[in-house]
Each structure stands twice: as C-alpha cells, then as structure tokens.
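seq as requested:
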Amino acid sequence: MKHLRPWIKLSGVFISLCWYLSQLLISSAIKGKDTGRGFQYRRKFCSSALSILRIYYKQEGVLQPGACLYVSNHRSMLDPLIQLGRIDAYIVSKAEVGNYPVLGRGAKETGIILVHRHDHNSRRAALDAIEEKLMAGLPVLIYPEATTYGGDLTGDFKKGAIEMAFRKGIPVVPVAIEYPGKDYYWTDGPLLAYFKRIFSSGSSHQVQGIIGFPVQSKSPDTIVEDTRALINQMIIDARSKSLGS
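struct tokens:
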C-alpha cells in the first residue's frame, strides 16, 4: 500500500483538477471569463487537493484589500497549491507551467503571469504585466527568489517587482510559508520522486503560513532587504509556533 499511496493521491488530485477546470470552462463559455470566478474555482480545487494530500495549512494574519504585492519565500512546488487556496491573487510562475497538460490550462484560466526566467524580454514583459494588474487594483503574488530555496531562511531576492510596487505606492506585503522539515524543500530532482518521498506515508502534513503587515520602508533602496528581513523573521516565528503546538 505504501508504494501505491502517492500514485493514488496524485490521481485524485488530477481528477479534482479536471473536475473543477471543466466546470470553470463551461461557466466561462456561458457567462464569459471573470477573474473572481476563476479565483473561486481555483480555491475549490486547492482545497480539494490539500484534503486528498492530507496537508493542513494554518495561515495567520490578515489579507490586504485591493491592490498589493504579496511577496513570499519559496520552498516547494506545493507552495502555490497551498497558498492560492487562501490568497486570491494573480501569481507569477515559470513559463514551463503553461505547457503542463491540464494544469497549464487551469493556470492560464485562473490568473497566472508566465515568465521565462533566463529571457530578459520575458522578464520585462512579466514586470509590465505585474504593474498592469497592480495599477488596476488587483493583488499579485510573487516568489522573488525566482526558484525554490533549500537554505535555512531565504535566498537572494530579485528586486524589480518589489521596487516597482514601492515606487507606485502599492503595499508590499511579506508572506512566509514553512514546512515541518527540510525534507519538504524541493530544490532539484524529479518531481515524481519528490512526490513519492513526501506522500508515501499515510500521515498528515502540517504547514504554517503567515501574512504580515505591509512593509514600512523609507526608500526603494531599502524595500527589498526590509521585505526579506521580515520574511526571515516570520519563518523563525512559524517554526517556534510549530514547536510549541
């Protein structure tokens, strides 16, 4: 059973994805595309997937109303699945996600900004898209480390979107996500091998999340490091609460 369990769970997540995506596509065909409806179906899928995977996510803090730039650390491919069940926002992701079967279509239908990380023109276009969404009063979620990071706290942050939001007067909101241990961090290796390692057991998985207050910085020269410092502290706080529970 242990060897079959991860594939049963993965199949369940895939069936759930197909179910909610088909409902969204039918609804959009009848009523037209709507961002709020896309977020709604995305939340339903994420909730279903986390239930299948037995991931229990405890998120503290208050979401920011209106336009804001949520800035999160990045530990695992599970991060967006977990966070987008609670945060309605456009999300920036690597362009490869758009090519994934079914998942890519679902991502495009529910608010994703794709970027080729090693292509300057693509990065520029993604930054312009982020600015467009923010100026339209919509929230955006980014992972400024640009890839998953397996170190103790956070890796180096890309500056562009954070500095742009600060200059435009858009709130920059720090977000932290932390897992039970480093085994959950996924920085390289095959995705299926990671999935097998984490979900072969029948145990549940407790994940901590914190939404911070908007970063208070005096200039664009300090906003990036101020944001990173706050997220680092939030990761430490999440670990302390996990140990104390």
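The mean pLDDT is 89.
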